[in-house]
Structure formats: C-alpha cells, structure tokens
C-alpha cells in the first residue's frame, strides 16, 4: 500500500514538473537503466529565482533477488551552471522508500559537480553524494546515503548519453532485519535532455 502511495506521489510530482515546464522553466529530464534498475528524474528552475532548482526522481530496483524496492526523492538545490562546460549544486533532498516490509523517509544533504573534460568539449565527467544521518531520518530509518558518478557524451545539442555508477545504502533499525548489502549498486546507462 505504501509503495502505491510513493509511486503515485512521485509520478504526480514528475507529471506536474513536466507539464508545468513553461511556468517553472524546466531544465532537464533524465532516465537511466541497468539490468535490475530503472530511474527517471526531472530538474527545473523555480520561477523568479536566479539559481534555485527543484527536482524529483523515482527509482525502481530489483537488486535484491527476493524483494524489489522503490525509492523516491524530492530536492531543492542552489545550482550554478552554464549548461555547456559545468554544473554544480548544493542543497537538500527528501528520500522516501518502500522495500520489502520496510518504508520510511529521511532528509539528506549533499551536492554534485560535473565538468567537461579539457580538450574534449563533448565529453564530461563528475559525481554526486547525498547523506541523511539518523538525526534527519524518520521512524525506524537510521541512515541513507547515495554516491555516484558518470561519464557523459553530448551526442547532439543539449542531449547527453552517459554511463554511470550508483551506490545507495539504507540502514533501518527494525528488529530482525539486517542490511548487509546496499539497496542498489552498480553501473547503468542513460540519457539527459537539457533545455
């Protein structure tokens, strides 16, 4: 039941972000896939601000052979970019998840940085990190952290394809439940449309 609420909430956020792109000046839509995982994300600038962005994502993973997981995010970041050579952001992100019989939420802080590789203007690389300690985690959630990186190639104007790696770990204190493995880890491929 909680999973359906998460899915409908994030899909609603994504739909509103995409359909209201003229009001919010949508900046990017992204999708990535691996053998076990699919993720969609949108990023848009808030109207009447110079560098405040809101983004949302939905990740579905079958990394665990016995259970699937849904992880949604909704974030606010200060972003600096020229959309040609670099993009940097610092801010906060709300994570909410449903995994097996567990669900919860946490507020993470972090950021990301991507830059074109000198001498290869169509090639860029970078990474990101998000961390939610116990003090900003709700219910039985103890901690969430996500790390990742990617190498992207601009195939046509404002459209990148990329190869990335993601590591997403969840700590939960529900008795009898042990998390020795990350919720999601491994390489993926995807594309990003920049507006």
TrEMBL record:
InterPro entries: YfaZ. Keywords: Signal. Residues 1-25 form the signal peptide. The keyword Signal applies. It comes from the Bacteria. It comes from Marinospirillum insulare. It holds the Pfam family YfaZ. This is YfaZ.
């Amino acid at each position: 039941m909680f999973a359906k609420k998460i899915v409908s909430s994030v899909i609603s956020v994504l739909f509103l972000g995409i359909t209201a792109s003229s009001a919010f000046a949508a900046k990017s839509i992204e999708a990535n896939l691996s053998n076990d995982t699919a993720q969609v994300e949108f990023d848009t600038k808030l109207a009447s601000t110079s560098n405040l962005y809101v983004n949302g994502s939905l990740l579905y993973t079958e990394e665990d052979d016995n259970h699937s997981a849904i992880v949604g995010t909704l974030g606010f970041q200060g972003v600096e970019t020229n959309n040609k050579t670099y993009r940097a952001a610092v801010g906060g992100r709300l994570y909410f998840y449903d995994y097996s019989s567990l669900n919860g939420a946490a507020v993470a802080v972090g950021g990301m940085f991507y830059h074109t590789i000198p001498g290869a203007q169509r090639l860029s690389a970078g990474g990101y990190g998000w961390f939610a300690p116990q003090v900003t985690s709700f219910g039985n959630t103890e901690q969430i952290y996500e790390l990742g990186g990617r190498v992207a190639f601009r195939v046509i104007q404002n459209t990148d394809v990329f190869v990335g790696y993601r590591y997403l770990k969840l700590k939960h204190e529900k008795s009898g439940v042990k998390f020795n493995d990350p919720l999601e880890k491994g390489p993926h491929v995807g594309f990003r449309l920049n507006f």
